[in-house]
Specification:
By secondary structure, this protein is of the alpha/beta class. It has one domain: Nucleotidyltransferase, domain 5 (2-Layer Sandwich). A five-stranded mixed beta sheet has the order 3-2-1-4-5, sandwiched between helices. Helix 7 crosses helix 8. It starts with a strand and ends with a helix. This is Exonuclease domain-containing protein.
Length: 172
């Protein structure tokens, strides 16, 4: 099974209005690929832009451009074909990718690290990536702090997934 760790930063929390402005992914243990995507700010929500520190991070040449697909996205679509998406609330990320690409090349089952962590830590409900990362550190694993950059969050999700998978295997 191929795992693709994915994170997006978006202009809104609603995929019918907002757009992806940053995408990152990694195939299994491979390199993290990340890029800023052309996008429109017409329906941007200030709160969504603040979360990812949009104004501090996005090059002026990308801001407000057409939402046309890029070669980076073409490669991301190819990489995701049939793979299992792993993320912190991957339904959010994949809803924006589906809206942008008009299709969902990944496997229909998604792995949400926030739900995956619940039984390991005795939680009654999913917690955010920051809490999952902190709890994984208690397992003795060095986990990077999530930073609301797509690449940074992909790194954190992947390390948490690997730490939790190892922990679950030891419980058998």
């Amino acid at each position: 099974m191929t795992f693709i760790y994915v994170d997006t930063e978006t202009t809104s929390l609603d995929p019918s209005k907002g757009e992806i402005w940053e995408l990152a992914y990694a195939i299994d243990d491979g390199e993290i690929f990340a890029d800023f995507l052309p996008h429109d700010l017409m329906h941007a929500q200030p709160a969504a832009l603040r979360i990812g520190r949009y104004l501090d991070r996005v090059p002026d040449v990308i801001q407000g451009r057409s939402s046309a697909s890029t070669p980076f996205e073409t490669e991301a679509m190819r990489a995701m074909k049939g793979a299992t998406i792993v993320g912190a609330n991957p339904a959010f990320d994949t809803s924006f990718l589906r809206a942008r690409w008009g299709r969902a090349p990944w496997h229909h089952r998604l792995l949400d690290i926030e739900t995956y962590a619940m039984p390991a830590f005795g939680w009654d409900e999913p917690r955010g990536l920051k809490d999952v990362a902190e709890a994984c550190r208690q397992l003795g694993v060095e986990i990077p702090e999530p930073d609301h950059t797509a690449a940074g969050d992909v790194a954190t999700v992947r390390m948490c997934h690997q730490a939790l998978s190892d922990w679950y295997r030891r419980q058998l």
